[in-house]
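Sorry to interrupt, but I need a hand with the structure work. I would like you to pick a protein and set down its sequence and fold. Please put the record directly below this note.
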Amino acid sequence: MNRYDVVIAGGGLIGGSIALGLARAGAKVAILDAGAPGREASWAGAGILSAAHQSPEMNSLIPLTRASLEMYPQFVKQIKELTGQDVGFRPYGLLEVLGRDITREELSKLVLEQHKQGLTAKILSGAQAREIEPELNAELKAAILRPDDASVDNRALTVAVLDAARLVGVQIYENTTAVSILREGRRAFGLLTNAGNFEARWTVIAAGCFSAGIEGAGRYAPVIPAKGQMVAVRCEATVIRRVLMSEDVYLVPRDAGRILVGATIERIGFDRAVREDAIQELLTAAISLTPALKKHEVVERWSGLRPDSPDHLPILGPTDLEGLIIATGHFRNGILLAPVTAKMICEWIQAQPMSTDYECFSPMRFLETRKSCTAE
């Protein structure tokens, strides 16, 4: 019989970060992954670390994204100390390029709103933006610099976090599919899997867009897959230091001239096909933003399935089933929110005072009539 203090469904960056935190605090932890750990949304993302959101309905998320962004330098330092692995953390900021038709008044209003949300943002003219990122289109009129934003190599980070978890005693089971929540009355006590029962005092559902498919979890985690297609190019003559973003595309620099170009959003089920027309649209937008990318070499195309919730906000916290905790629905922010999510889950399980307000993100919001957290 497999018995643990905590069993976690999902072996991505979220599940691995939670397991690492709990194991370092002395818990006996198991991670169960239906396939190869770390090869779903955590592998497919771009690793952008930005606290800002332009959609008003996402404003309630900003305190959480800010808190997690502030944790990142220490988070990656801890992972490197444990594993010796470099995870490609680049704390160089993000440059958001605005449409040509935006007025000065609209631009000022946008930046003022970000300042009200506690974010650092600065208006740049086109010339100022090209001073710090010379490859930008010469027709660029204005941009917003967010110097506190960053990026990380999400693939390297996920591998390192899972390695760190193993080093502190976490048991990771691959090809082990969580089928249903084991329960006795109003108490959860683990997971039924294709490899047998895994019993635990605490059960954490962190299986991304697959969470709703675990019997007993869907009512708390009604997530669906939001497909994203991306492409990586190599263009060694093009030097980009920061994340560059427009309304149509984002560019994320990596080492050795590799640049990630993304990403589409499609809610079409669990389809993983990579469409050439979608890739070409991304490349066209990328070249419009940075013309030097005309001389690129495509080195990889891929798609990933993000976990999206009905209100596009994360689903975090305990449920009305004793011992069951949900940590999914991070949508486009899973990489960014990994440190703060892990901290919150550890605080719940260890009965510590909560350092972050989670009311807006409670799984119970889908079962009850609750006050909306959406900003007006």
